[in-house]
Design brief:
Helix 10 packs antiparallel against helix 11 and helix 16 runs antiparallel to helix 17. With 312 residues, the chain is mainly alpha-helical. The chain is globular.
């Protein structure tokens, strides 16, 4: 199963339009998952990194690998069946491939696998995914992400953006460790929001919102100073007509308004932002997707429901 050509054949058959061929491939996949998970996982990893393989198959391999490292039943959680040394090898290799991958879409796929694996290895209630017996966590992951997500250390803007987004995705798994790493976290946030690349600033925006939504208030409270910068980033994204990124940021704003509305309190008292900017979006009739205007209106509605005294 670790043979590259055999793995390509299996992946091709799994998406076949012929029922018999697809069902046979699914049976082979389930057999490998149960009896030879090491070879299956390593084979999928090899396909993901092989640029000679069709990208659609590589993406398919990434989706399957993500499923295999996700906590679930004993039948489906293939990563749990591996020996500790193999688990550690796979974890380290995923980090190396994330850093070295030049295909942006595949890099994001590897990041998705890493974030899902982080949930498994950091689950204190379920030892099946731990990298070593008696040791919960992934000691090298957070430091690697901090290094790659800091724009002052990493000048590769594509990798830096992907790393900031990966940091955002592992906040919940590493809540305690991130709360204790204020200096490193502050550097990543500050450098991303000040970066000349608007997409890196966007990544910094969603990271801040994720931190506010998950960390304890005493930890995220210093981030309230980023409020004016976040509003500025939102305006810049609108000016650049990056409407997908605008919607992503508005979704994050909405979530914060729902769970931590106090994050906006100081900024609203000082400048009525981000309410003014969002009201402007609501009133903009051309050049913006309807979804953006709706989300801006929804933020105003949600915040007023959470903080009705703000209206008076």
């Amino acid at each position: 199963m670790a043979n590259a050509s055999e793995m390509v054949q299996l992946l091709t058959a799994l998406s076949s339009g012929q029922n018999q061929e697809r069902q046979q491939a699914e049976k082979m996949f389930q057999t490998a998952k149960a009896g030879n998970p090491d070879s299956l996982i390593l084979g999928l990893m090899a396909i993901i990194s092989d640029e000679s393989v069709d990208e659609a198959l590589r993406r398919q391999a990434a989706v399957l690998l993500r499923q295999l490292v996700t906590k679930g039943s004993d039948k489906d959680f293939a990563f749990a069946k591996l020996q500790p040394n193999v688990k550690q090898e796979i974890a380290a290799e995923l980090l190396r491939r994330f850093e070295s991958m030049t295909n942006q879409k595949m890099q994001q796929k590897i990041g998705d696998i890493i974030s899902k694996l982080a949930e498994s290895v950091c689950d204190q209630e379920d030892q099946r995914g731990w990298l070593a017996p008696g040791q919960c966590g992934w000691p090298t992951l957070l430091q690697a992400i901090f290094r790659l997500a800091d724009c002052m250390q990493n000048t590769n803007t594509v990798l830096c953006e992907a790393s900031i987004r990966l940091l955002k995705d592992v906040v919940d798994a590493f809540k305690t460790e991130i709360s204790a790493a204020q200096a490193q976290l502050g550097g990543v946030v500050q450098n991303s929001l000040q970066h000349q690349d608007v997409k890196i600033r966007c990544a910094g925006f969603v990271l801040v919102c994720e931190l506010v939504g998950i960390l304890d208030k005493k930890v995220w409270a210093p981030l309230t100073v980023t409020g004016p910068v976040l509003t500025q980033v939102l305006v810049q994204l609108c000016q650049a007509n990056l409407q997908e990124e605008v919607q992503e940021c508005l979704q994050q704003y909405l979530e914060i308004a729902s769970v931590e509305p106090d994050f906006f309190k100081h900024q609203l008292l000082q400048s009525m932002e981000p309410a003014k900017t969002l009201a402007t979006l609501v009133k903009t009739k051309t050049g913006l997707e309807e979804g953006i205007r709706n989300m801006a209106m929804e933020w105003l509605t949600v915040y007023c429901e959470k903080k009705p005294k703000w209206l008076f």
